[in-house]
Amino acid sequence: MKFKIGDILARVRSWFPKAQAKLKEHAAELEAKFSEVDRIPLNFTLRQKLIDRLLELDAPNPYCEEVRSQLSQRLKQWQQDETAPNGFVLLGTPVDSFSKLLDTAISSWENDSILLVKTLASSTVPHDVSEIVRQLRKTSDSDFVRSANRNLVIVVPDLSQCFLRCVEGLDSIDVLQDCVLRDRSRFWLIGCNTFAWNYLDLACDLSVSFPEPSILPELSPEDLKTWLSPVCHLADCQFEKEADENENSETEDDEDDFWNSKAEKSYFHRLAELSLGSAAVASNLWLRSLHHIEGEEGIFAQRPHLPELPTFDKNDRFLLYSLGLHRNITVGDLAKTLGDSPLEVLQRVRRLQSVSLVRQPDEFFQLEPVHYPRLYRDLSNNQFRIGDSKS
User: Would you say the pTM of this structure is higher than 0.85?
Assistant: First the structure.
């Protein structure tokens, strides 16, 4: 019986789709490492200019549409049925900003019958549990928020900023649940990452107060191009052709007017796949792919690829998990969640920062978005409760 190599490879690909995806990742990395093109990094000034423009972008429209759609649907159920849940949680990754998303989505949400009140403002120090408890009780006790018309929405932009993973650090979550369950005349909209949600549901039965959370949609290649287009225009970047791309055919389909070239289409499909549809991961991978080419004019976007995870041990893994759990946290608060001394935690954080697993845009530490897809897979494989995600 004769076997053809093509048939065997086809069977292997059908048996091991995840292995195929990993092979594609490594192929992209090898292509980047051994390409004969002499790539030159962007200078600091230009790179910072692009970073600043990325930070100015509004939240992607599909994210905003999901917020508005879910809010309208669940509010209608709550107003028409006294037994319906009086709130819902919107879930996303630990590297995407919920505060900015909810600000953008709600500012353009039209509903004349609803009065929005935003509590736990971003000016509040993250993880200051006593202050968060005070704000929640103030909101709960205020005559202003008692409404027989059931037309009040209270927004908690990012629940991961409202607690600490320690005994005293969960007081705020207990108070929040008491507010939600005791007074059903108000509706609560809460943003939360999947790490924090799974932990809080296990520790505090949070799904009793907020059943059926909604999860942000994965951004498609078209979504990513549309969202990143202002920054792409600023950079005026050209998309490198892949090695197997037909030089004589710029587009795969003459009727496809959305893509300017086959290289651009291939780039954004790859970007959507690697980023797990996350805006934060995609924008950082996009920035990472930009460079100059020796002897060429302009900025080029190389086929995106995920960096390899640096080596880390079991203790580092718990630290990285805690960073994802709280999204934005100081060394002092991180030490409380880990039960270690601040100096010991700072030393470990600085080491992880030196290999680009952690970043520090201000006094708070965060996970580095470009490592999130592989870090998610690592934590999941090591039995951490971090929620569902495409991997």
Answer: yes
Each residue's pLDDT tens digit, 205-258 = 999 999 999 999 999 999 999 999 999 999 999 999 875 555 454 444 544 789
| Token pair in block for residue 121 | 């403002």
Nearest to 216 by CA among 365, 73, 61, 383: 61
Cα 53 from chain centre? 18
Q: Show Cβ contacts of residue 222 under 8 Å, excluding neighbours closer than 6 positions.
A: 258, 268
Rounded Cα distance between 265 and 287, Å, is 17
The answer to whether residues 190 and 87 touch, using CB atoms and an 8 Å cutoff, is yes
The CATH class for the domain spanning 314-381 reads mainly alpha
Q: What is the pLDDT of residues 146-179, one digit of tens each?
A: 556 678 889 999 999 999 999 889 999 999 999 9
Domain ranges of the chain: 16-56+219-301, 61-215, 314-381
CATH code at 61-215: 3.40.50
Burial class (CB in 10 A: 0-12, 13-18, 19+), 64: buried
